Amino acid sequence: MSGQSMSVGPGRMGAILLVAPALLMIGFLFVYPFGYSVVSAFTDNGEGSWHIANFTKAIEFYSKDILFTIVIVSLSTVVIGVLAVAIAGYLTLGENPTAVAVLKWLYRWPLFIPFIVSAQLMRTFLAKNGMMNNILTSSGIIEPLAAQSYLDWRGIVITFVWKQTPFVALLVAGAMASIDRTTIDAGRIFGASRLRILIELVVPQIATTLMVGLILSYVVMLSVLSVPLMINAQSPTMLTVDMAWRINSYGDYGVANALGIMSYLFTGVVAWFYLRQSLKDKGA
Amino acid sequence: MVQAALSSTWVRTVTRVLTMSLLAFAIFGPITNMLLWAVAEVWYFPYKLPLEYGFSFWERVFRPEGNATEALFSSIWIALLTVVVSLAIAIPAGYALARGKMPFRYLIMLLFLLPQAFPAVAVHMNVARIFYGLDLTGSVAGVVLVHASQGLVFAVWIATAAFAAVDAELEAAARNMGAGRWRTFTDVTLPLALPGVMASAIFVFLISMDEFTGTYFVGAPDVVTLPMLLFTSSMEGNYQIASISSLILLVPSVGFMLFIERFLKADVLAKVGN
Q1: Which of A274, A239, A202 is CA-nearest to residue A68?
Q2: pLDDT value at residue A120
């Protein structure tokens, strides 16, 4: 009743003071280095004036890696999306309670495993004499001589998919659990197959959640240094490895930051699509 | 008819069992491979299993002066400092964002998300360059700051949600009974928000324990955390030490994640990001 009789919480000035340290931290450790990277990309290693030499050099040296990065990250995102929808869909529509329970227990494990550990697991698992090849040859699926190392672009995609699918599946399963069941039941009554119900009735209702999960994964995959460094650091490789190499071997911040700006742009494009879509949804 | 139905159920069951087994292999295969390496004494091509098992590598890295012991302690020390720094910043910020009359509140909340929204490598290499001028590269303080900036969004968002979930009427009641602002905060608000604050502390601790990119640019080669030890030993081909480090890193991650549901209650979870 008298909830507002005595003011609760800090006033405007107090609130700003309380948030100030957090804002300073973001300013000093994110906004400032971010601005620094932009300035460095357009000025370093030149005559002190603004120029785009770093970008021409970056494209000249690393155009293959730029393409490689886009392909790997896009492919991984698509595979993660398909698998996450399949897992979450089975959790929602599955009719065998045992299978649903087993799947629920099973799929989450990689979620708890740090990226660097995932990279190490895959480094041993996917190697030429790793467990995957051992099982494949022992069971007679492939000839021992045909065993090959998967520690190239495939290894990076496998590691990303392995690590990120549970995260997206968790988000999507949560969204699927809260949608209106009547549409699903209606689809069932009209005899639609479960696959059709999933694709035509369920997925449209959770599309926003799926997209958020995929965008977050996409940015994470563009940021992770340990996985490409440990799975496949030879050429062609991902931009994150090139940036680290440019700095550690040449101290060349100009080109490294030009590559960094490109990786900002890759996330920028996706963020723009997302914002446009969500604005459309709100407008509709 | 009956036979056809039976055989179709049978086919379904077999497909189900096969799919689940394949998934189980895809998920636990890599983990098993790591566990084998962690206890392998001798293992080389073309042998499919280790030739000798044992714990001599464990003894080597867990001697008081062993490199895993040192890396583990420096990881835990850095993670604890990161939690202290993050909470010291996130508790006031979360309280203000949940209760205060904050201009541009939505924008400020979004601002904390920025470090997660851009590729971290590009930012961290410049942080390292800035830190170099401040003599922070290769120092624990520098690494703690980088880790804290990575964890800040979780710390602030969860703390905000935790404070928002506290009933404002209770605070008003304390104030009406004559308690000052500070007393109300320490005796009423903070204890009620504590589970959520603990959850954010756990998140930050884990982020710091597992962080690689920032440590690679800012800390290396002077600050050796467990992920750094894992990385260098793996690149040197020392899979035993890399696998032992992996295993140690898994324990807190899995443990805390199983534990965190106790701290992160549904009412707080529903408010995260609002």
Answers
A1: A239
A2: 92
Is the preceding omega at residue B221 within 30 degrees of 0, hence cis?
yes
Beta bridge partners of B40: B53
Instruction: Give the chain A residue nearest B171 (alpha carbons).
Output: A8
Domain hosting A234: range is 62-283
> Which of A116, A144, A240 lies at the smallest CB-CB distance from B227?
A116
- Helix, strand, or coil (residue B52): strand
Please give the Cα distance from B127 to B98 (Å, whole number): 30
Give the model confidence (pLDDT) of B213-255 as tens digits: 999 999 878 899 999 999 998 988 888 888 888 998 888 877 7
Does A239 map to a domain? yes
- The number of distinct structural domains making up chain A is 1
Q: Do A260 and B122 touch (CB under 8 A)?
A: yes
In a domain, residue A90? The reply is yes
SS3 content of chain B, % helix, strand, coil (to 5): 75, 0, 20
- Per the listing, tokens 């799926």 go with A210
Report which DSSP code applies to A145.
G
How many helices (DSSP H) and strands (DSSP E) are in chain A? 13, 0
pLDDT at A4: 45
Q: What is the pLDDT along chain A (284 residues), one digit of tens a residue?
A: 344 445 666 777 888 888 899 999 999 999 999 998 998 889 876 667 888 888 988 898 899 999 999 999 999 999 999 999 999 999 998 888 899 999 988 888 888 888 999 999 999 898 887 888 888 888 778 777 777 888 888 999 999 999 999 999 988 998 898 888 888 888 888 888 888 888 888 898 888 889 888 988 998 899 899 999 999 877 788 999 999 988 888 888 889 999 999 999 998 888 787 777 767 766 55
CATH number reported for the structural domain that contains residue A91 in this entry:
1.10.3720.10
Predicted ipTM? 0.84
Cβ(B126)–Cβ(A30) below 8 Å: no
Give, as one character, the DSSP assignment of residue B53.
Answer: E
- A7 to chain B: which residues are within 8 Å by CB? 175
Could you give all domains of chain B from N- to C-terminal order, each with its CATH number?
2-54 (no CATH), 66-269 (1.10.3720.10)
C-alpha neighbours within 13 Å on the C-beta side of residue B206 = 23
- Whether B130 sits inside 8 A of A36 (CB atoms) is yes
Decide if B40 touches A, using CB distance below 8 A. Answer: no
Check CB contact under 8 Å for B30 and A122: yes
C-alpha distances out from residue A183 to A91, A175, A178, A204, B14, Å? 17, 15, 12, 12, 30
Residue A57, domain member (yes or no): no
